[in-house]
Design a protein that fits this description.
single chain, 253 residues, alpha/beta
Length: 253
């Protein structure tokens, strides 16, 4: 939780991506933008219910292209997203994860749950040890640690099964907070292919960028301040939205 709080504090004006699903009539795919922190924040963040709604719009047996530009977020919310994705695939649906810029932390775990993973040239994928926050007695905190250990093992299993790397190698990468370039992601089994040309996203998504200096080993290219907010976005509304994020996290950190 502390890392998530630091992540939000290092970012200024971060508009929210629209959560509606758009159908690409040329390909028949439904497109969903996971361009936010993974968290059930009500009017901010991408939650499991948001993803479930997107999968429902794509329909049984449909194809959902999940475009990702996320710094990560809450591990248990991500677990619920992964479960929903697995159920959709098991029922005949197809999910293509497209890493547009960054799939960090649990966003990478979500990406690897898809049938196929594409990563844009110049994008990054990051894996690290699971983190969480907690409070209470020493016995209660030990229980939190035990749950976190179990969650992390399940994440290691997903990475290992998908990449064909050994669990030991995955654990080593996670402990080191490893950032993979697009080519490295493909060569190490985290993505199927590098794509060099992206279909233009809606113009109001252009300003969504993340300063990831809250992470220990973030590439320099990802430590710069977010881009200025385009005039068509309401800066006052975005600022108030971010203040609500920080107030909520401050009470739970």
């Amino acid at each position: 939780m502390k890392q998530l709080l630091n992540l939000l504090r290092t970012n200024g004006l971060v508009p929210r991506a629209p959560l509606n699903v758009v159908k690409n009539e040329a390909t028949g795919e439904h497109v969903f933008y996971l361009y936010d922190v993974i968290y059930d924040g009500g009017d901010w963040g991408v939650s499991a219910m948001d993803v479930i709604a997107a999968l429902a719009q794509a329909g049984q047996g449909g194809t959902l292209r999940m475009r990702i530009k996320s710094p990560g977020g809450d591990v248990m919310e991500s677990k619920a997203i992964v479960t929903a994705m697995r159920e959709y695939i098991a029922n005949g649906g197809k999910i293509i994860a497209q890493v547009d810029a960054v799939a960090a932390s649990c966003a990478s775990w979500i990406a690897l749950t898809a049938n196929e993973v594409e990563i844009a040239d110049g994008a990054f994928l990051m894996i690290h040890k699971a983190t969480t926050g907690g409070w209470g007695t020493d016995n209660e905190l030990r229980k939190v640690a035990d749950v976190l250990t179990m969650v992390e093992r399940s994440i290691v299993d997903v990475y290992a099964a998908t990449t064909k790397q050994t669990p030991e190698q995955i654990q080593q990468w996670m402990e080191a907070e490893t950032w993979f370039t697009a080519d490295q992601a493909v060569s190490n089994g985290f993505a199927h292919r590098v794509i060099s040309r992206l279909v233009d996203a809606p113009t109001n998504l252009a300003a969504i960028s993340w300063n990831l200096s809250a992470y220990d080993n973030a590439p320099e290219a990802l430590k710069s301040p977010p881009k200025e907010t385009p005039p068509e976005l309401d800066e006052v509304a975005i600022l108030e939205n971010n203040r609500r994020r920080l107030r909520l996290l401050d009470t739970n950190a």
